[in-house]
User: Fold Dolichyldiphosphatase from Stachybotrys elegans.
Amino acid sequence: MDPDSIPLASLSITHVYYDPSDKISLLCAYLALLPQALCVVYATLILFTREVEVALMFAGQLACEVLNFVLKRLIKENRPPRMHGKGYGMPSSHAQFVAFWSIALALFLLVRHRPPPVQRSRAPSSAHMPWTLLQRLALVLCSAAIAAAVAWSRVYLNYHTPRQVWAGCAAGVLSAVAWFLFTAALRQTGWLNWALETPLFRAFRIRDLVVEEDMCQAGWEKWEERRVELKAKPKRKTK
Assistant:
């Protein structure tokens, strides 16, 4: 049977079309939802951590989407025949989105993130150790693998040609590097520090700790102090 003649189904509550008789096609349809899931993660982290670095990364992600919107309407290249009529395909927005996310995360973890070293000989047994370089590298490789899977899924679902996906990946990588250099300039010139001191940023308690603080460390010492105090209370009562 001609693959183009197989009727497609739409994934529930989405507009992602896939072949219902193909389990890999169904998996690819779920991979297509990753950009939406990442936007939820971005918003959640911004709301609950108030970290300016996360907000800057999300701003870059949105700028990357705007760039994709402009490029598609300048190039005006159609999608593969089966998905013809469902918008322009060059470059792939999914590939561009995940490429930006993966590279931006890698640049943060391997270049910008510099947690202070902890001397294990002096640290208490309950102290949380910052992620090592190997742990951060493992996370970077995982994000790259996920991004590659999403990009490949767009070709498998016939939403894009390989050339459109490669173009999206290239645009995402270049955008991530350019945004990293731009935010580095904001830090070096003092504009970011100036913004953090403005009444608006202070009203929303925006801070810039994650660059130098371990990502799992926030509030850990406070929790450890409270835990020790709670354990000590019964002993004081018995005495």
